[in-house]
User: What shape does this take?
Amino acid sequence: MTDLDAFLTAIGHPLRRQILETVYETPGISYSQILARVNISSGKLNFHLQKLDPFLAQVEGQYQISNEGLKLYRTWKMLDSRLSGTEVTKSEIPGKFVGRRTLALLIDVMLILSLLFIAADFASAFQLIPAWWMGGFTVPLFLTRIVDVVFAYPDLTVVLIRAFILAIFWMYFTLLEGYRGQTLGKMLLGIRVVDVSGARVGQHPAAVRALTKVLILPFDIIAGLIKARKAGFLRFFGQYTRSWVVRN
Assistant: This one.
């Protein structure tokens, strides 16, 4: 059977497409979990898994997409988006959204920091005090604490607080962008993260994007301008994860 025949056979049945998408979105899923998600008999599942054999990898009873499976999934999604008229075009890719992406990131950062510091001391979080960085004007206490943590001398306590905050940011970006392609900031600015095929980006690529955003964003952008700009990516790890930002 040729590669084209194998591809067409694999995506030619809606149940196989459902199984493929289930494994793509939940790498490491077990046979019983697939059975519950797809809701068919074990005999039918075994039959369709045999048809998908070149495109799935099984390790210790856990299924994940193989390299060939990733090609198949993206090809299917690209065809589906073209047929439905929702294909992501070259004119929609990220270079045009630097301002929106920056503003969305600032919204997310301030939102999470504010919620964390308000939750940490709700009783006095809104107490007004003079702020040195506002020339003595009074601001809520939680804002002053945010500035203090960002600009304070990095002793052990400050380093631990910063590490905790970065972990919160990583989880926030991973969960929201992996689940629906949008953080709250992106929702407000009308942009979202998608796979280059136009499909949902998924948790693993979202986790990589979030980790590099939290830890090395300036270097990621510089590397992207050098290595990935011609391919239409702003960030190097955008090209690595094959994902970019588009309008809603």
